[in-house]
Amino acid sequence: MSSTSSSKAAPQSTLAPRRAVPPAPSLGASILVHMRLQQLRLRRGAKLKLALAATLPMVVAVALSANLGDDAVGALEGGYKFALFLLLGYLLPFLFASGAISEEVESRTFTYLAARPASRLGMVIGKWLTATLFSASLLVGAAILMHVSALAASPTVFVDQLPLLGRTIGAVLLLSAGYSALTMFFGALVPPAAGIVGGLYLAIFEFIMGEMGPGHLPLLTMHHHALLLSGADPNLEPVVQLPIAFALVTGFTLVWLVLTALVVVPREFREGSG
Question: What is the mean pLDDT of residues 229-237?
Answer without folding.
Answer: 92
